[in-house]
Amino acid sequence: MIVILHNEACKDVAQSMQTDLVDTFQDHVSVALALDSNSNVWPGEVEWNDMLIVLYDGTSLPREANEYVKTFLAKRPDTALILPVAVDDKFPVPPGAASAYKALPFNNDSLGTEGRLIRRAGAMLGLRLQGRNTKVFISYRAIDGSQIAEQIYDHLLALGHKPWRDEAKELDGNTKILPGEPVQQEIEKALADASLVLLVDTPESYNSKWIKEEINTADGMLIPILPVVFRLQGDKKKGPRFRTLLHLQRWIDMTFADAPKKTTLSTSDLEKITLEIETYLCDIFIRKCRIPFLVEKCFRDAGYDWQALNRALLMFKSHRKFSLRLSRTVHSHCSIFDQIYDPARIRFKSFLQTQPHAHHALFVYDGDLWPEDDLKDYLDDDMIVLHHQELSALLTSNFTKLGDA
């Protein structure tokens, strides 16, 4: 549930925000308005995804509004999400009970389904949805990325995110994991609470065994990775230095005249990075809401049941009994990536080995519908790779037809 608390002067803006949020998140998140001069009561039970947007224009909050904010926070000591929005940029500090939270400035780019408000709200909800304690894990090589990582960390922290960086990870290029310690186990422990890995991809990062292990572990845990690629002017290469991450087709290019370890990021640099982080997290949130919803609907419309085997990894099981002797069981993975991402497909395959045998396994992807020629490399006797738009036709044809949505 999202509630937009507003005064009478901001009513039109609040209504526009409500429309944008409903259009973007569809039926997955309810959105309500609350006038700050009324004695409001939260419209529903306390839920994990409750968010309070406090829309203000410089006037003080009335007593009723302050009590409403305090009650909201008190009832959610560990899960409260609050986002003040400053309609007037002359008042960057929110009033009253919301004053401890950094405000999002309202401007011409704030509204619309692609607006800054949607990205920020989607990012906050997306982190919560993944159930990983709202952490952005910053991966870097200390020898030339420590200063950059620290600047990004401080900026994200000031915005209300919960970034995490391992300050003791590497010093002078040497890993802090001691000989004899289980490397994979230590990395999994560090990544256990991560919702996104922000990789500071500097020239020395590729030589770090630790970072390579972090990437492999994050892929295995289906934690999205966003590389920030730092290259010197004149370097004609594009994209991440880590080959597996090129398949993501998603990274941030940063070009500098001096070596990255001497770099001081500007406000615009930090905003660029933040924008990409929030956009990615918002995309993930929408995809995690939308794709399983669409896939479940296709299965249920075809007479199957629907069961989550691992909700964090979006692994599902469907079963339909046709007669006393004939039934069909299907395992499905709904990918959070906007294309066919090989590490996710490999993770699904390894997950299937832990499950009782099913008649079919489906890797369901989103984004653009791939042409048949591009799917030749993904032909697999053990798994069907398909776009969610193809699922209905496949189920209707009893698994004999693909390509007609």
In spatial order, strands of the major sheet run 2-1-3-4-5
Can you identify the CATH superfamily of the largest domain? Toll/interleukin-1 receptor homology (TIR) domain
Query: CATH topology of the largest domain, anyone?
Result: Rossmann fold
- The structural domain count equals 3
User: Helical residue percent?
Assistant: 25-40%
The rounded Rg comes to 23 Å
Number of DSSP-assigned strands: 17
Q: How many alpha or pi helices?
A: 9
Write down the secondary-structure element order. Answer: EHEEHEEHEHEEEHEHEEHEEEHEEH
Overall geometric form: globular
List the uncertain runs: 168-180
Structural class: alpha/beta
The main pleated sheet reads as: 5 strands, parallel
Mean of residue pLDDT values: 84
CATH architecture of the largest domain: 3-Layer(aba) Sandwich
Write down the CATH class of the largest domain.
Answer: Alpha Beta
Binned strand content: 15-25%
Distance between the termini: 33 Å
Which features would summarize this protein structure in a list?
405 residues, alpha/beta, Rossmann fold, Restriction Endonuclease, 5-stranded parallel β-sheet, globular
Verbal overview:
The chain has nine helices and 17 strands. The strands form four sheets. It has a five-stranded parallel beta sheet with strand order 2-1-3-4-5, sandwiched between helices. Strands 7-6-10-11-12 form a five-stranded parallel beta sheet. The longest helix is centred in the last third of the chain and has 35 residues, at 267-301. Helix 3 crosses helix 7 and helix 5 (183-191) packs across helix 6. It has helices at 11-25, 63-74, 116-129, 142-158, 183-191, 209-220, 267-301, 342-352, 391-396; strands spanning 2-6, 31-35, 51-56, 81-86, 104-105, 135-139, 162-165, 170-171, 174-175, 194-201, 225-232, 252-256, 307-310, 315-321, 327-334, 360-365, 384-387. By secondary structure, the chain is an alpha/beta fold.
